[in-house]
Amino acid sequence: MSKPKAPKSKVKFSVYMKKYWQLYVMLALPLIYLFIFKYLPMIYVQIAFKKYSLVESVWKLPLAKKHGFEYFIKAFSNNDFKYALRNTLTLNLLDLVFGFPAPVIFALILNELCFIRYKKVVQTIAYMPHFLSWVIIYSLALQLLAPDAGLLNMMIRNLGGETIPFLNDAAHWIGSYISFGVWQNFGWGSIIYLAAIAGINPELYEAAAVDGAGRFRKIWHITLPGIRSTIIVLLIMNLGNILGGGFDRPFAFQNNLVMRVADVIATYVYRVGIKGLQFSLTTAVGLFQSVVGVFFLLLANWLARRFGERGLW
Amino acid sequence: MKKKLISLFLASAMVVSMAACGSSGSSSGTAPEPAPAAEPAAAPAATETKEEAAPAAAEEAAPAAEEEAPASELVDGKFADTRSITVEIYDRGNDGGSDPENNMYTEFIKKGMLEEHNVEVTFKKVPRWTETDDINNLLAAGEAPDICVTYSYPTILTYAEMGGVIDLNPLLEQYKSELPNLWAWLGDQNIYWDKDPKTGTVWAVEGRRAEQQRIVTFVRQDWLDKLGLSAPTTTQEFEDMLIAFKDNAETLLGKDASKIVPFSISKDIGWRAANIITAQMDPAITDKDYYINGFDDRMLTEPQTKEAIRLLNKWYNAGLMWKDFALQQDDTVEDDMIKAGYVGSFQHNWDMPFRNGEDGYNANLARNVGEDAKFVAIDPFTNSDGKHAKWLYSPAGDRKSFFPTTNDEPLASLLYLDYISRPDVIKYLQAGDEGVTHEVLDSGAIQIIAATGDAIQNSGKNIDYTITCNGTWFGDPDLAALSLAYGYAGVDPELVSQADKIARTDGLTPKNVNVGTIEAEAGVGDTLSQKRNEVYDNAVVASEADFDSVWDSYIADYLSSGGQAIMDERAEKWDEYFGAATMLP
Fold it and tell me: What ipTM did this prediction achieve?
């Protein structure tokens, strides 16, 4: 029954491949990359449940105590981990609240500029911080904001004010951290929105103008709905990252005085796991982080579909 | 055909660029998770076979050696065929220093080892200030040098427990007769310092400190003179002096008055206020109490430390200290302030102002401020017995040399340690050539002079090369004592002698409490050092009213991060080995 069918589909397949093989060749490398660097390492997730040893193969490692959950229990009973978890959430949420709308607003403003050359100059200047590494940004911040030697604080003192602990007091530090994050990213982040705006049919604007819509009406009824799907896709990706986030930014900005609000999971894993060689413990933390990350991703995707958007899949 | 080729080429170029973009884009999000997993992934494969090979070889060699000759492979201390080993060397990245892997001293060692033992030596540099991290990475990757050196015993222990370090005990016993210099220099005390009392394992050999002076308080002599003050002799007088510095900033610094820092510290307060902390310690503290609280070498949990930090807190809030100290990643900014002449006093290594020749603190002050501007040692802090108590270094507790299991040449490596401990080798490495790095004075003392090019010693007394010896030795204790004050190019020997004398006054020698491995200490050393600095730094900058609550809450964090577990296990082990005794036998 199935025998005559098979050659038929085979012919079809080969014809299809003859036509489109270049596409598959193009796809192969990223797939190999994903397989080697993202899927193969997952084998070692089992370290989270085992007592790690440098010289044993992971398959031969003995199971950790408490049915393999020793390191999860250890992590959750550790103050440092709790701080790191809390800080990851708060810092990422604040980033989302302040950092996410900023590029959208910036793109809208740029879009309304008539003087093209001015617009381009502003755009370029706004992109620049994106190309600075966080270590450099922190040393800039230190020169500007340090309590004794910082330029800003010197000015404040000379004007008769009190020193403001921008970097050495928990609450102020969070403010500085978030502000620098927004500053670094809003220009770069706006590119994708500008591209989306450029794709909106100009006839819509003309029609709206004929109907007597002003500038803000146009933004509200044409531009924003036009880039709505872009915004939502980016929001989903950001939400999926709520327990992730970069390593270099918090790491560069940390100092001993603010570690309680500045230590995030990424830096905690680095400090305790890689520097302290507690691989099992931090693999457990990493696994937890990933599982929660997937949960947030699914949640955001579900929300997106509820709002009638396509979501990620 | 051509078209197809071009399109294929373009397609693959695009794929490559896409893959590259993909990696940078996604790595930030997921890097922390796979990174710890991926790293060790490569390691087992690399070390597995060698791990088996090394002990097996040692075991096989042992019986054979006993039957035939005491030292099988060596003829007159030489291998028949040339062996090669790699040796870790610190890279200090000094401005204008010599290449740590290739200079006058490495050539000397290479030549000597080849002639004496037919062993080829290759040096592998590791950045000094991140040595623990770097040696960790090298060990995890299975690429560590055959002879590794670190200050951090917990790092060695962690790897030893994973089976990544060679047990030296059988090797030392088997080859004892081949290693006369090592034994003569280190003695049983340092060689067996870390020997496990139960299992008998020796994971590392402790280098010996020829100088035990540790930390001294320094003050600007010219500032004292300008204000008509004499050197403070009590804590109160020291405080008054700091206040006088602050109040007279205009006199001392003129237009830079706002930059004055009467007392300077870094974020490592436990080091930079060590003598203040030690002076608060109860002189009658029992060995047991000290040991149980002694995991942290900055004395964080010792009973009276809190009161010392309260004093610093008071000074900080009175504006006597620098407010930016905790924000700095390293000491460069503070160094620059000291060299520019804004700092009145500080505590640090006993020879700190004299180090680094032309780039030293005092040398810079003489250039930037004036000939009379200099730091001198003082000794103001006294304990409740009226003694100027301060810790000395123990004769061990310096660099520890160990062999990772990737080392295929344990005997050649031991011979290296032996060679490096030979009196004449130590002397050459420390003193170099006459007329180039030193001069011999009429008294016979060796005066170190500023060297150039390949002869520059990147570390004081070249300690980076004399890994079994730290401090002035020259292979002869009398010559060392005579030459100590002349060990710093261009420095007034009087100042060195004074600092040396103060550093030894009422010095306390640490004791070795060897109760085997404390399991709770493995892997937490770095984390706890970081936590300890957080406790100290936050307590110092707290408002005076909040001091107690800040201290208590940060100490609680420290204890929950592993500090308490260590103290409990130490107490348990003490009881097991010493019973009810509170002092060491």
Answer: 0.78
